Amino acid sequence: MFLCNQTKHKHKAVDEAQNCWFEAVNFVNLINGVWYYDARKYNYTEYLMDIHKASTIVITCGRGLTNLLRREVRGLGFSVESWHDMGLEIKGSLYDCWRLNLSLRTASAVLYLLKDFGCRDVDEFYEGVLSVEWEGVLSVEESVCIVPHIDTPAMDSDKSAGMVARDAILNRVREKTGRRVGTVSNRDHLVVNLYWKDDRCRLFLNTSGQRLSKRGYSKESNSATIEGALAAGAILTTGYSGRLPFVVPMCGDGTFAIEAALIAAGRGPGLLRNNFGFMHIKDFDAQAWKQLRKETRKSNSRQSSAAPIIATDSDQQTIEEARKNARTAGVEHLIEFSVCDLAETPVPAERGIIIAGPEWGREDSEQRAVKRTYKKIHDLFKQKCAGYAAYLFTDKPSATKKVALVSDKCVLLFNGATKCQLLRYQIYPADSRKEVKSQR
Fold first, then answer.
1. Distance, CA of 54 to CA of 61 (rounded, Å)
2. What values do phi and psi take at 253, rounded to 5?
3. Rounded to the nearest 5°, which phi and psi values hold at 420?
4. What is the pTM assigned to this prediction?
5. pLDDT at 399
6. Separation CA 247–CA 192 (nearest Å)
7. How many helices (H) and strands (E) does the chain have?
8. What is the pLDDT of residues 138-188, one digit of tens each?
9. What residues does each domain of the chain span?
10. In this structure, which CATH number among 3.40.50.970, 3.30.2130.30, 3.50.50.60, 3.40.630.120 belongs to the domain 55-206?
11. Helix (H, G, I), strand (E, B) or coil at 410
12. Within 13 Å and on the Cβ side, how many CA atoms surround 161?
């Protein structure tokens, strides 16, 4: 009996020594960015993602916002390598993606390139996706959402490509870890975007998850809702920085006023969100992310501008909803909300910016009401906005005739697939107009 106990303790001591050795190896290699999974069970090496490894980053945006996005990205210290109608490319790391998600106002998504490979058929596509070290990207406790975009005769649909990619990812993880991961259709988990055009495929980690234009401070009540990124783009186009009064009649859900307040306060819109795609990467460093948020909040913030931000609407319930949204965004104290008719909109004296965005999505049967609204905008601009840069943001170009003013600038933007115009009217004081006439 004593001999058996000795033998048992000897084997236990050997097992404990082996465990200590494996733990030591794991610790050393974690420092080097490599993690050796329990080799006695699976006999493989798993590489964790290095958040400081440089790769291609693609930043997408809505049509018409690329130039503004380029300005933002350069302002954050990045060099733009190329751009197109709906986005641009830079070089950077996953950590840079964290920063971009926090700070960008006009972006839709920040995509980090995982693999770029040639593929002429479905088999090569499958093998290309399979070759990515998904076991180091995707935790078995997480689910993955695959977003395919296909433009090739080798595949008949986005859905089919998504199914092939799903099989490759799940098979790789199961082969390497012995466990299965789930797939989902919503973007609140780890999101993979794939783009297969002709004989080239690019796999991206969508570090944003949900679109960045979904700020989270308001409900999307209908298809005509203006998203935060579009409103921010329109405001940035006016040159607004918080130093001049900013007036928003017919404010609706408050998006324009809220985005103006975020700009005036120097607050990155990503600070409003608590979920991004990169947070679902395996062994996500929550402490480093917390520190970056803290540093970004400190560096982006500036003292509130003395110039007022005024938001009005004729409907009490609408104003209450806008006020609630501003409270959620943390900028209620920066906005002066009031209920009044369009003609009674308070406009501070001298210089400023006013942007009117009449209600969207009205049917043709309501065209008379639309035209009456645009006539009221004309009266407001002419009678109360002398010295202001007045802007009209509209999806109804034909109705702008009722404004009966000559715009000196027109910027084309898109609310989804809907074409919009941002028209600028310089409203000169009466004395200035007389002076101009006398000089002719």
1. 22
2. -80, 0
3. -130, 160
4. 0.85
5. 79
6. 41
7. 11, 17
8. 988 889 999 999 999 999 999 999 999 999 999 999 999 998 899 999 999
9. 55-206, 228-267+303-439
10. 3.30.2130.30
11. strand
12. 28
